[in-house]
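Subject: histidine kinase structure
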Amino acid sequence: MRSLRARVLLSAAAVLTLFVLLTALALERAVRDAVIAAREERLQAQIFLLMAVGEEDQGGLVFPNALAEPRLTLPNSGLYAEVLSALGDPVWRSPSALGLETPAPLPLPPGQRRFARLSAPDGKQYLVLAFGVTWATGAVPQDYSFVVAEEAAAAEREVVQFRTSLATWLGAMTLLMLVALVLVLRWGLRPLRQVTEELATIESGRQAQIIGRYPREIETLTDRLNALLAHERARQRRLDNTLGDLAHSLKTPLAVMQGALEEGEIARSTQGPLQEQLERMHHIVDYQLQRARTSGQGSMTLAPPVPVGAVAKRLIASLEKVHRDKGVAVAMRIDDGLLFRGVEGDLMEMLGNLLENAFKWCHGQIRLESRREPSQWSLCIEDDGPGIPEGQVSRLLERGARADESTPGYGIGLAVVREISAAYGGRLEIDRSTLGGARVRLSLPR
C-alpha cells in the first residue's frame, strides 16, 4: 500500500475497532457481574422477608398466604422459595414452586450463605441463594435452610438488552470517530499536500523554491529540498560557465591555427607557435572537462556529512609526497567533530585547490586552523610564502582571471573554490597571514 493516508487510516481504524470490541467485552462483563450481584441482593432481601413473617408451629415453620412478594404466590412467576430442615427435607414451599422441579441445594449450617447458578432436572438455569439459620423461638431450637431461586433467563434478558443498546451506541460512536479521524488525518497531512503542490509549481517554472511555512517535522525536509534546489541551480551555472570558458579559451588558439592554415601550407616558422597553441588547447580542454566532471559528480545536499579533518589529512599526505623536496611543515588544528554537509568531491576540490596553492608558494611552513561559530564554520589556510598583493585579490576571484590557465599561480584554483563555496552558501576571503604569506579563509554554513 503506497498511500500514506490509506495506511494511517486503515491502521487507526483497526486499532479503534479493536479498542471498541475490547471495551464492549469489558463493559458487558462488568454489567453482567453487576446484574448478578443485584439479583443476589434481591434474593437475600426475599430471605429476610420470609424470616420476618415465618412462625414456628408444631409441624414446623408456617408462613401466611399473603406474602410481601406477590410473585411467590403466583405459579410459574419465575421466583421460588422453600425452607429445608437440617436433614434437607422440604418444610415449606412457596405457592409459585408447586408442581415445579426446582434445584434443591444441600442444607447449610447456621450462619452460612451460598449463592450459585444451578440447573433444574428439566434443564432450566436458576440463580439460587441458600442461607442457614437457627430458629430459637420454640421450646427447642431448630436449624433450617432458607432457599430462594430465580430463573436465570430474567438476568440474561437484562444483559442482552444492555448488549443491544451498547452495540448501537458504540457503533454510532465508532462511525463518528472514524469520520473525525478522516477529518483530522486530512488536516494533519495538509502540509504534505502543500509541499507536493509547491514542488509541482517549481517543476512548472512558476516558482524557484519552497516558500510556505510548515511544521517543525516537515521544515527540515523543506529546508533540505531548498538547499538541494539551490545547489542544483549553482551546479548548472558552474557547468554553463565551464562550457562558456571552454569556448572562450579555445577561441584564440583556434584563430591562430586558422591563420596558419589559411596560408596554404604550414611554414616551418609557424610550426612552433602552432604546436604551442595545440598543446595549450589540449591543456584547456583537459582542465575544463575535468571541472565539468567534478561539477557533475553528484549534487546531493542530503548526502551523509563528511569529516573535514579526515579529508584534509588525506590531501596533506598526498601533497607532502609531491613536494617532499621542500620539507614543508604543516601545523593542523581541525576539530574532529567538524562536518561538511555536502558532496565529498566538492570538499576535496575546495581543500585540494587551497592546499595545493599553499604548498606551491610557501617557503616551508603551512598552518590549518578551524573555527566554529553559531551559524557557520570556517577553515583558515596560511603559508609563509610571498602572499597575494592586495590589489589582485578581487581580480583573482573573478571568473575572468581564469582565462589563462597555463599561467601557474593562485588564480584559477581560487575561482573554482569561490564558485563551489558560493553554491553551498559560503564565501572565500583572502588577506595577509601572520606567517608572512597569504591567508585564505573558507566559510560555510553549519
